[in-house]
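Async update (no meeting this week)

Hi team, since we skipped the sync, here's where things stand on the single-chain job. The sequence we agreed to prioritize is pasted below, unchanged from the tracker. I ran it this morning and attached the output directly underneath so nobody has to dig for it. Comments welcome in thread, and please keep replies under the output.
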Amino acid sequence: MTASRASASSPVPLRAVQRAIAEQFPRLADLEVRALETDGTDNAIVAVGPEIIARIPRRPGDPAELHALLRREAAAQAEFAEISPVPAPRPLGIGTPGSGLDRPWSLQTRVPGAVATPSVLADSMRFAEDLADLVAALRAAETRGRRFQGPGRGGSLTDHDDWVRECLDRSVGLLDVPLLRQVWSQLRTTAETGRVTMSHRDLIPGNLLVSRGRLAGVIDTGGFAAADSALDLIVGIHLLDQSARDAFRERLEIDDLEWRRALAWAFEQAIGLVWYYRETVPAMSSLGRSTLERVIEEWQR
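Output:
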């Protein structure tokens, strides 16, 4: 998720969702429909019974383009679910506009678990191993010749200079901007590793589920694609304190160059969270702060 592209939350039209499900997926017509509270900004999430969720894009757009996007996401979800060591959503269908919904929407399996936070398992070595094993499985997946595409994170660090500069300017009074400018000026020039792997591309706490002290699932997998091999390492920075981060890095055998690029990607993501979500989604703003603290801690070692 990119902060500059997120939109504000809006009420979920539950009656419209229920009508659309009844008309387009009649076998699910008798299931209870209820909105789920999440910090996600791209989709409204609706539970359809205990084992299915509907995702309704929050941003309007051309229906044909949205439908094509949902088809690509469904293909990525299916591929991710096949190689993930923990449960991940599987696509169940794509709905069309109608019945009060003005845009395409999707159905997928629901993955149980509580949303991870930056502090709940931060010192857990077992959790660090779970995260490392997830990243290892993604990095081992066949790219089939795919390369990084698109404007998001996972390509060239310096492509994000303008965005980081804007975020730093907007963070004056909220963060230690002079220090953060110094950190970015050094991280942004980190050499490329030359390695491209398959990547979730948004391994933030809100997309990870936990249960009984273990990683229990991964969600929002529709962006699974090829990217800089360091990108998914940000999960260890978002979620782990120093000793657990060390264990995470050691289990994956990450060298200094790749780890430094991971710090850069974590910085690029976190710097946009603090100011952008300060009033609308405080949990995301707090995540930005804690991640930046961990980036600085690693940078100063």
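Quick observations from my side:
The radius of gyration is 19 Å.
The chain has a mean pLDDT of 94.
Reply here if anything looks off.
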